[in-house]
Amino acid sequence: MQQKIKEQIDRIRSQGAVYVDSRWYPNEETHNLTMWNGNLKNASATRESGIGVRVLFKGAWGFSASSDINNLPGLFEKALDNARTAAERVTFPVRLAEKDAIQGSFSSPNRIDPFTIPFDQKVGFLKKMDDLLNQPGVSQRVADLTFIRKQILFYDSEGSEIEKNIIEVFPSIGVMGVDADGQTHRRSFSPARLGDTRGWETIDEDLFTTEAERIVRELNQVLTADSCPKEERSVILLPGIMFLQTHETIGHALELDRILGYELAYAGGSFVTLEDFGTLRYGSEKLTARANATVPNSPGSFGYDDDGVPAQDNLLIDKGILVGAITGRQMVEEANATARKQIFQGSSGANRATSFYRVPIERMTNINIDPGTDGTLEDIIKDTEKGIVLDGDKSWSIGSNREQFHFATEIGWLVEDGEITDVVKNATYQGETLKFYNALSAVGDESTWEVQYVDNCGKGQPNQVMQLGHGVPVCRFDNVRIGE
Ligand SMILES: [Zn+2]
Hints:
Elements: H1 2-14, E1 19-36, E2 39-57, E3 60-66, H2 72-87, E4 103-107, H3 119-133, E5 140-156, E6 161-178, E7 184-189, H4 205-223, E8 226-227, E9 231-237, H5 239-251, H6 256-259, E10 289-292, E11 313-318, E12 321-322, H7 329-339, E13 351-352, E14 361-362, E15 367-369, H8 377-382, E16 386-398, E17 404-416, E18 419-425, E19 428-432, H9 433-438, E20 440-443, E21 450-459, E22 464-472, E23 475-482
Parallel strand pairs: 4-6, 8-18, 9-16
Antiparallel strand pairs: 1-2, 1-5, 2-3, 5-6, 6-7, 9-23, 10-11, 10-15, 11-12, 13-14, 16-17, 17-18, 17-19, 19-23, 20-23, 21-22
Helix pairs in contact: 1-2, 3-4
The structure holds zinc ion (ZN).
């Protein structure tokens, strides 16, 4: 098969294509189990295989994909035909940033393949969680397991040959309850990175037992709590909400295709312009953010992207100044040409497709905030006069260019004169992205830093759901509007 694909790449290249690549997925599986109030509400399994082919011809892409691998010449020919047609109406001729030809492989670290675990055992875990969550105050309870396994073989006309074997495990539990006013509240748990691997072994029943008790206890505190005050306070974001803040207002805002005006669906623009790189003060000096695809054990670490570019660790924001973006081979060339200067030195290795029948687009890797020097969570609370500690993403809305945001969290704890006082319900906060990050006044140390997983980032039309990570510390922002 490998030989046949390479022959087709050479054949299309000899017909005038400047670049050809192919991603062959011999096998891709997902498995989802959801238990809702004691009933197995969903048990689904999907399995796909096929090939996607990209051809670059006279400055235009052509793409074709099929799950039928018996007519490779026809499949490659179709991609070339599509590129030929597209080449008749090119607005900006596609060029690809240089890269080295790679012969490599990557396997995500795991000890026990979750697809080898019997169905009964998985349902048994969910049932155990359901029993633990079935407590006074809880009106609805949910336990969920999602597993992904894929093998991808990448070949291109520049001599790259890359094999990737990826396994992802995403467990979560949640509870909902109704307060005296008839409003529903929820508390949930999905683990941050645990240890060096992410196979079935990371589903640690002891940990989940402890966390199940905690979310039930905290839900009950929220149900009897007063509402979050409407005022300005310092907000102290735990990783369970800081990851989403980072995702929506740093990650998505710094995808280079959005900055260039593509991807306008799904709040798809960005307030960032090409002139901003190297000069824009995105945040206070305490803010250093990076796209790090080399974090051990995260869905945002995948070895090589779907341009065949190796994983990198790149600064996005350096002590508050915007210095980098999330890029693939195509967009960096277009950005440099549009700006008439070399802003980007090459692809940052962040072009990914969700499956063989989708084209790669700029996707987040691990978009992280560096730990700071302001101590532990306790130190930060002690140093806060009037604040609120927030955790758990409940809902969010984002300006169409990521310039402002409004988040609701599952729980809030008021801080007065350096001490936690009361739990509040209906906690929300909002702000303007740049003003907010410039009000970053404390960043927790390594002890507060966690890698949170995202299993469902959506982007593109047709939609491509992607998995990634965010390594974030506890962060405090001053003078933030809360409670409305
Ligand atoms: Zn997203």
